[in-house]
Design goal:
This protein is mainly alpha-helical. It is 68% helix and 1% strand. The longest helix is centred in the first third of the chain and has 38 residues, at 102-139.
């Protein structure tokens, strides 16, 4: 029974034309590529590269990025096909509803909440750190530490920071929420401008850093063994989160069949090349043992005696993290919009603003939630949980592609090479292996005499423990509210009652 409620694709497409529930088509391929780059280049490259190199990978950080990018490439192909075949808001949730059924669609929708909402909260904390640096170095003003840290933050030596809340993180989420309420066209224009600035900053770092690479810093290349390199791939996977958020804009794409593959694959390809180059230069400029800092790119430039360039890069990092916030919060609201339109969540989540034609109520509610979580939760916990949500979504999208193609063979759209099974199966396996990295990577490193710092709760790696708790909460909501409120479920029950009526009257 749980796997029988499949929402017909024709019904999904018809709903996008309903009065009061239709979204404006304003996004072309350039805006979609910019949206993808805006989401991808951010925390991963400006914040997490240093921690990953210092604690897990050493100079083999480049290999970690290659592994994570390789896994993402297969998932990107799958996302490109399903997004072009099902050009509807909701991303993987909608794809699953049309192929795997309502129950698994609910799970993946709830999972996407974890990815986008906590991902945005994570980025807001990184944004806050760079904002503090810029305000201090350029304007000479120091924001009080108790307004820069949440109550659980500790200093380098483990001492409590006595924080109240991360105020800059809270405020930037409110600003992004305001932009999203105003509309996707306005948001896209802001995003395109900032993405251009951000890419120029990354290219600027590459240009000045390549001449200061000391190849001796690349030795040893695998200081934490391959186990550390593989766990590093799981850790920096956060750096690739974003290309899938492009698929949430399918309903607002002018020509989804053409534009969605261009936006998804194009943004991923550009960012992967930039990541590999930046990782190689970064670990060549500074020994990996010194990179456990929140601003590794700016720090590396500081070490070669160019403080003005460091300040410029910090400004670029702020721009980069701002666009990541924009796209992640955009994706979050569109997933809830789609789930509410199906009756799985209260109706007010799918109300569209009469003037701006955006899901304003949903955007306002989640803006406040994300701002609160980001200002009160440690960044390490947020980042690990975000990775779990993303990889799990990749697995389910990969599985849904061949089912979707078989159920709806006449739909038009981009097709992955090699038929409906080869790429999706490889994608599901690779994403699954990376999803299990918190279990097997520490074992690999331990076998070679190294230790990877993975926290455990009740014998379960922290990322998996948090993910299972989140999943359990989602299942409770589904069986208490969503299953009985589902529009598809009500229609099936009405049809069954109508079919049974003549026989019961006899």
């Amino acid at each position: 029974m749980l796997l029988q409620r499949v929402k017909p694709l024709s019904r999904l497409l018809a709903e996008t034309q309903e009065q009061g529930h239709s979204l404006k088509k304003t996004l072309g391929p350039v805006s979609l590529i910019a949206m993808g780059i805006g989401a991808i280049i951010g925390t991963g490259i400006f914040v997490l590269t240093g921690v990953a190199s210092a604690k897990y990978t050493g100079p083999s950080l480049t290999i970690s990025f290659v592994i994570a990018g390789f896994v993402s490439a297969f998932a990107a192909l799958c996302y490109s096909e399903v997004a072009s075949r099902v050009p509807i808001a909701g991303s993987a949730y909608t794809f699953a509803y049309a192929s795997l059924g309502e129950f698994l669609a609910w799970i993946i929708g709830w999972d996407l909440v974890l990815e986008y909402a906590l991902g945005a909260a994570t980025v807001s904390v990184g944004w806050s750190g760079y904002f503090y640096t810029v305000v201090k170095n350029i304007f000479g003003f120091q924001i009080p530490q108790y307004l820069m840290h949440n109550p659980f933050d500790t200093g380098p030596s483990g001492e409590p920071m006595h924080g109240i809340m991360n105020l800059p993180a809270f405020c930037i989420i409110l600003l992004i929420g305001f932009l999203l309420v105003r509309g996707t066209r306005e948001s896209a224009v802001v995003n395109n401008i900032i993405v251009t600035i951000k890419v120029c900053i990354v290219l600027f770092f590459i240009a000045i850093g390549v001449g200061h690479v000391n190849t001796a810093n690349w030795t040893p290349y695998f200081p934490y063994t391959l186990g550390g390199t593989f766990f590093g791939a799981f850790f920096v996977f956060f750096a690739y989160i974003g290309f899938d958020a492009v698929s949430t804009a399918a309903e607002e794409s002018v020509n989804p069949k053409r534009d969605m593959p261009i936006g998804i694959i194009g943004s991923l390809a550009i960012c992967t090349v930039l990541y590999i180059i930046v990782a190689a230069i970064l670990t060549g400029m500074v020994n990996y043992t010194h990179l456990n800092v929140p601003q590794p790119v700016a720090y590396a430039v500081d070490q070669i005696g160019m403080p003005w360039a460091s300040a410029l890069i910090a400004l670029g990092a702020i721009a980069g993290l701002t666009t990541v916030l924009l796209v992640m919060m955009f994706g979050q609201t569109r997933v809830f919009f789609a789930m509410s339109r199906d009756g799985l969540l209260p109706a007010f989540f799918s109300r569209v603003h009469p003037v701006f034609r955006t899901p304003a109520v949903t955007t306002i509610i989640f803006t406040l939630i994300i701002a609160t979580v980001g200002s009160l939760t440690p960044i390490s916990i947020l980042g690990e949980l975000t990775n779990m949500g993303t990889l799990f979504a990749f697995v389910l999208v990969s599985i849904s592609l061949p089912i979707l193609r078989k159920k709806y063979p006449t739909t038009q759209g981009y097709e992955v090479p090699g038929g409906p099974y080869v790429i999706p199966v490889i994608s599901a396996i690779l994403s699954g292996l990376l999803l299990l990295a918190p279990f097997w990577s520490p074992l690999m490193a331990r076998a070679f005499g190294f230790k990877i710092d993975v926290e455990y709760i009740l014998g379960i790696p922290l990322p998996w423990f948090g993910f299972l708790v989140w999943l359990a909460i989602g299942l409770v909501i589904y069986f208490i509210y969503s299953r009985k409120s589902s529009i598809v479920g009500k229609e099936e029950a009405a049809a069954a009652a109508a079919a049974a009526a003549p026989s019961s009257a006899v």
